[in-house]
Design a protein that fits this description.
alpha+beta; four-stranded antiparallel sheet; 4 strands; Endonuclease I-creI
Length: about 140
């Protein structure tokens, strides 16, 4: 598999919907009352199930889920995102508007790596980054 092909699936909304998602949710387990999580996902029509399975083999991480018409390749493991997904996209660059979403996603991952997401200031920075992603640009 050509790694640039995977990047292409992640870059363009019509060739393969790639998503670099930052989630902020309420959590009673956090001192600040909020929990940050990251998710990388590529969605395709259900007929492309074997293609989506090949992403698991190639990137050595992720899971496949499906509904009636779509199949998703998803990575939620923080370690897989930090040590596999981010280095992959640093090496094989995303082209187009999704590059900015990826860079924001990476900034949040770096804040989490240094534990800044556990501080009020870091959490506010993550909220700013999230608000600026996608349609907020």
């Amino acid at each position: 598999m050509d790694p640039n092909w995977i990047t292409g699936f992640s870059s363009f909304a019509y060739a393969g919907e790639g998503c670099f998602h930052v989630k902020i949710k309420n959590s009673s387990r956090s001192k600040l009352g909020l929990q940050i999580s990251l998710l990388f996902k590529i969605s395709q029509h259900v007929r492309d199930k074997e293609l989506m399975k090949s992403f698991i083999d190639y990137l050595d991480c992720g899971v496949i889920s499906k509904n009636s018409t779509w199949i998703d390749y998803t990575v939620i493991s923080y370690n897989d995102l930090i040590f596999k997904i981010i280095p992959f996209f640093d090496k094989y660059k995303i082209i187009g508007v999704k590059l900015q979403d990826y860079l924001d996603f990476k900034r949040v991952a770096e804040l989490m790596k240094t534990k800044d997401h556990l501080t009020t200031l870091g959490l506010e920075k993550i909220k700013e980054i999230k608000e600026g992603k996608n349609k907020g640009r």
